[in-house]
Design brief:
By secondary structure, this protein is mainly alpha-helical. The chain has 3 domains: 137 residues, no CATH class; 121 residues, no CATH class; 70 residues, no CATH class. Helix 2 packs antiparallel against helix 5. The termini are far apart.
Length: 365
């Protein structure tokens, strides 16, 4: 067992405890505390098997501390989402290793992912409303917003860095670089913003249309919808007689029946429809622009080779920070992820710089 894997368990223990500390619902907080103890037990067992002293490892890593800090700012739903993603990644890694070594897949590999849900199901005081609250929070974690921020900044930086270096190669960092960089920033940010607006708006309109069709079906063919509902219960393992009884009971309230069918038949989470397309577009514009402005900054104050060198250095730092930020989701080594991002970004910029240089020389000749 690698030390990094043991550290992952220790981080999970720390983060589940923080979730419990900041959970207003005492019952759900109790579940998080149980998960924290389970993760601690895993870490101790793994360390014992590998003859590793846990003394210097029991502290949370920088990644866990950063996730906790983000949770304090953006809400602890984000922390829950990261934990669930981590559990899934660990399970997938175990399955991959077993397949590679032709070992039997028993189904227990994903037990780690199911522990939290099992604890919630077994917790006597967990009510239906609490369970629904947990499910909603899990589906709408703030991690998506953080992920979008990192990727949006990366798109802006890499694309505009490449553009700026291409123009700089053609002009030796003189006239036109600043104008081209600002034009690239504006064009890219507007394109990303419009794309995000269309994506969110079209999804909302599609779901709203499907939901309206479901309501029309309920009103025109209630018996057919009742039978569909019963089949859904039967597919979940509920006996046919009981499934029919449950479906009949739900159908007494048309709105309740509609919400049930929207969730179970269409797989639509109504909470996701409340997102603002305009807000998503604005955030996309800002995040792209933040990344895109980095390689342009030096050309606002100087030009020539000096501006090119400063732009490369600033962009390299930005690329490293973005690569480091990505490890919040992947759990990979920060130096590996950071320098990988720098290498790929510099390679892309070098190619466009070389092409620009060739074009510039041919035009001058």
């Amino acid at each position: 067992m690698k030390k990094s894997n043991i550290q992952t368990e220790i981080d999970a223990c720390f983060l589940y405890r923080k979730l419990a500390e900041h959970e207003a619902d005492e019952t759900i907080a109790k579940v998080f505390l149980k998960m924290s103890e389970i993760e601690k037990g895993h870490a101790e067992a793994f360390a014992k098997k590998a003859n590793i002293d846990l003394g210097g490892l029991m502290k949370p890593s920088w990644r866990a501390i950063t996730i906790h800090t983000i949770g304090k700012i953006f809400g602890y739903d984000y922390v829950l989402g990261v934990l669930m993603d981590t559990e899934k990644s660990l399970s997938n890694a175990i399955v991959t290793v077993k397949k590679k070594n032709n070992m039997e897949i028993t189904g227990s590999e994903t037990n780690h992912v199911k522990i939290l849900r099992a604890l919630i199901d077994k917790e006597e005081n967990v009510t239906g409303s609490q369970l629904a609250k947990f499910e909603t929070r899990h589906r709408s974690v703030g991690g998506n917003a953080i992920r979008a921020a990192v990727l949006g900044g990366n798109d802006g930086l890499v694309s505009n860095f490449s553009l700026v270096m291409g123009i700089a190669g053609a002009t030796s960092g003189q006239a036109g670089v600043l104008l081209a960089g600002l034009a690239g920033l504006l064009a890219g940010a507007l394109s990303m913003s419009l794309g995000e607006w269309i994506s969110v708006k079209s999804s909302q309109e599609l779901y709203e249309n499907q939901m309206q069709l479901e309501m029309d079906e309920l009103e025109t063919n209630p018996e057919g919808e009742r039978q569909e509902m019963a089949l859904i219960f039967i597919a979940k393992g509920i006996p046919e007689a009981q499934a029919n009884q449950m479906a009949t009971e739900i159908m007494k309230d048309k709105n309740h029946a509609h919400k049930f069918l929207v969730k179970e038949e269409l797989g639509i989470n109504e909470e996701e429809l409340k997102g603002s397309a305009v807000e998503a577009a604005v955030y996309s514009f800002i995040l792209f622009a933040i990344g895109a402005v980095i390689p342009v900054l030096p050309f606002m104050f100087t030009n020539g080779m000096k501006a090119i060198v400063i732009s490369v250095c600033l962009s390299a730092v930005g690329l490293f920070l973005i690569g480091a930020a990505i490890t919040l989701f992947t759990g990979k080594n920060v130096w590996y992820s950071g320098f990988r991002q720098v290498i790929f970004g510099l390679l892309a910029a070098a190619i466009t710089f070389g092409i620009g240089r060739i074009i510039g020389v041919s035009m001058a000749g």
